[in-house]
Design a protein that fits this description.
By secondary structure, the protein is mainly β. Helices cover about 0% and strands about 50% of the residues. Strands 7-14-13-9-10 form a 5-stranded mixed beta sheet, with no helix packed on it. Strands 6-8-12-11 form a 4-stranded antiparallel beta sheet, with no helix packed on it. Strands 1-4-5 form a 3-stranded antiparallel beta sheet, with no helix packed on it. Strand 9 and strand 10 form a beta hairpin. It is rod-shaped and about 125 Å long.
Length: about 210
């Protein structure tokens, strides 16, 4: 046989390199095996079988291959929400996580720490920017599955217990605000008066 065309990622092995025709008709079997992960698409293998007694008697064999990959699926992610003060292990559950799969958090590719067909895991360092982000699993064929996760950051909320007041001329009043730490905020909150009537005198604690 003579190989005329074969994709570089493919290996062909003939189970029997020849068949003695004096024993009658027979079969020459062959095996196709990938040596690397191919892209999805259509490929062609061509080889020629020749009569060793008469090289003019040849037959070209054409094998058409179509490579496809299943659509990856994400059914859940743990944790789906975390504080950016923490380093975490992020685990997505689903199906069709195959060799060659890639994992992205928004546009940033993540290092996969472990993976099998139904689970994929990566380590996320502390300090990630807060917000809703897309966790994307991209299969070797380019198909993608997406699920959203939420990254929290330390913050605080302010509540005004009295938002309006009537002050007589020459009088005064106090307006009390409440402040509450959220997501393990431990810093300092600063306040300032942005606008007030020109004849008003406003005093306030600017730091809590």
């Amino acid at each position: 046989y003579t190989l005329n065309e074969i994709p570089e990622w493919l290996c062909i092995h003939f189970n029997q390199p020849y068949w003695p025709l004096d024993t009658g008709s027979g079969e020459i079997g062959f095996t196709l095996a990938p040596v690397s992960l191919p892209s999805a698409g259509n490929y062609t293998v061509r080889f020629t079988l020749a009569n060793m007694g008469n090289r003019q008697l040849v037959r070209e064999v054409v094998v058409n291959l179509t490579i496809t990959y299943p659509q990856p699926e994400i059914t859940s992610v743990e944790p789906a929400e975390w504080n950016n003060l923490d380093s975490i292990t992020l685990t997505a559950q689903g199906d069709n996580f195959l060799d060659g799969t890639k994992l992205y958090l928004d546009e940033t590719e993540q290092v996969i720490s472990s993976m099998n067909r139904t689970s994929i895991r990566t380590e996320i360092a502390a300090g990630l920017s807060a917000g809703i982000k897309n966790l994307v699993v991209e299969g070797p064929g380019g198909q993608q599955a997406t699920i959203t996760v939420t990254v929290l950051e330390p913050t605080y909320t302010v509540q005004g217990y009295k938002t309006a007041t009537v002050i007589p001329q020459g009088g005064s009043d106090s307006i009390i605000f409440g402040i509450r730490s959220e997501n393990r905020f431990t810093g300092t909150a600063y306040f300032e008066v942005e606008t007030s009537p020109p004849d008003w005198q406003v005093n306030m604690d600017t730091q809590i």
